[in-house]
Amino acid sequence: MTLRELVRRRGVLLLLLLMPLAFYLIRRDAYIGQSVRALLLGIAWAVSTAALFTTGAARDLEPRLRLAGYRPHHLYLGRMLGLWVIGLVIAVPFFGLVAVDSDGLRYGGVAAAMLCAVAVAAPFGMLIGAVLPRELEGTLLLLTVVTVQMLLDPAEAGARLTPFWSCREIATWAVDHTDDSYLTRGVLHAVAVTALLVLAVAGAVSARLRRRRHVRQLPVT
Asked: What is the pLDDT of residue 69?
């Protein structure tokens, strides 16, 4: 359902591709590491935005699907998988752009950072959409998180509390050729944050779609 909805809206797909491109081009004249880090945040922003709006759009439909027999985990896991696929579709051309436009990077690290951005962004946007019913509030919160992520020094202790810290850590390993501890910390952070966000989405969606005792599904005769 999520894939069909996004594919039908070709203008939305175009905007999702333009957002990371704008992030990349704005920092293109600076140090290559800055443009790669900006691109990663652009991908995270695009996937999170798609997750936020698809979650909001399905808010009225999900109770009917629940009454039709679907369980909550069918709904949120299906949407999450669809968003991960969309995220990969967005990330692949930008990986090609970085490979063509720059030299001397650890391209495996760039790919890993993009995968982490997509993995974290989908449940993060879904969680915002599940907790905040109004899209304007969700968009402002998402904008605030990404802005703080861009401005915060990744070396500070508080930076580890931000959802996309793993992307910048892995990007440092890929661009600056630092030791492997950066890659290890980044991957572990992405796995932990993704797992926590998935559990939070599961709790929020299950609580909202919990069937009331007075509601009973009548058998079809």
From this structure: 60
Is the pLDDT at 98 greater than 50? The verdict is yes
Instruction: Give tens-digit pLDDT for 145-156.
Output: 888 888 887 777
Could you report the per-residue pLDDT of 8-44, keeping only the tens digit for each?
555 666 777 788 888 888 877 667 778 888 899 999 9
Nearest to 112 by CA among 13, 29, 24, 189: 189
CA angle 17, 98, 189 (to 5 degrees): 80
Closest CA to 6 of 65, 87, 63: 87
Note the pTM of the prediction, 2 decimals.
0.83
Closest C-alpha to 37, from 157, 196, 176 = 176
Q: Mind giving me the DSSP string for the chain?
A: -HHHHHHH-HHHHHHHHHHHHHHHHHTTTS-HHHHHHHHHHHHHHHHHHHHHHHHHHTTTTHHHHHHTT--HHHHHHHHHHHHHHHHHHHHHHHHHHHHHH--S--HHHHHHHHHHHHHHHHHHHHHHHHH--SHHHHHHHHHHHHHHHHHS-TTSGGGGGSTTHHHHHHHHHHHH---THHHHHHHHHHHHHHHHHHHHHHHHHHHHTPPPTT--PPPP-
